[in-house]
């Protein structure tokens, strides 16, 4: 019995000495409950909207102030013409435009009916529907408050218009998201596992002393995954276009360039993971925890980033998938040109260089 107890103590000591095991046992559950608790939400919060006020009277100003005072919306800008709506949406920051008709206050007093149009960016159907419901609720609450102090029965009618996805097809949101997840996992996770396998089996040392240079070895290891990722991307786009009628409004050349750029970024991240992993298991756990969960939860694929707490919004900025989803939606659904998505493109390029530089510094010719 003493030997058995001593054996159990040894196993506890072994676990406590291994920092990675301690992180997996206690760190991952904490991180997961925090991510799932704060990131998974269907509510809206601090959603950026624009105002097109054609009336500019007391009533419209009071409504705008009421919307601005809520925590649901952040009035980003005021536009002056209907022609600006399209360009505002293409920039990707504003998710809805609130349009007040001309003589809104006058019609409300004389006809007891005022019309407000809610134009939403429906590239995220759930988000667009939720925004419309929240604004309608605020307008209804405002009219109820006015009816308490005035004899007239004011009624504010809300008209909804959806840009880019008028039928609210959820597949328009999931095709870009699924494509991003698959490319990230195939490119990053499989690359990190492949290189770590060579290190774990001891064959990496043989490759490094071969006539091939180290960078040639790495390129040779990752090239098949570039090819497979491109094939995956083509298959997803073809299925999305022909089966689910997913539009591709923008340039195919630009879409192909951005896709290959994201694949290279994911490969660079996979190489970085391989430099800090000693085993395939470690590489897989790091990839799953460090890539899969953030890509699904913090990229804006399923849940709106603007509704998350500020720390998670900041963390989302270092996730390449977030920027790629913005790019691919802009090209496919909005027909955006490079002039619209150049900032996001530069961010992905910068991340690629950063991952590569860190990998080179951590790369060791002699494996310990």
Automatic annotation (TrEMBL):
Domain ABC transmembrane type-2: start-end pairs? 136-366
- Which InterPro entries does this entry report, sorted A to Z? ABC-2_transporter_component, ABC2_TM, ABC2_TM_bact-type, ABC_2_transport
Q: Where in the cell is it found?
A: Cell membrane
Enumerate the Pfam families for this protein.
ABC2_membrane_3
Q: Which domain of life is it from?
A: Bacteria
Chain segments annotated as transmembrane: 21-40, 174-195, 222-244, 250-273, 285-304, 310-328, 340-360
For this UniProt record, the keywords arranged alphabetically read as follows: Cell membrane, Membrane, Transmembrane, Transmembrane helix, Transport
Q: What membrane topology is annotated for this entry?
A: Multi-pass membrane protein
| Family (UniProt) | Belongs to the ABC-2 integral membrane protein family.
Name this protein carries in UniProt: Transport permease protein
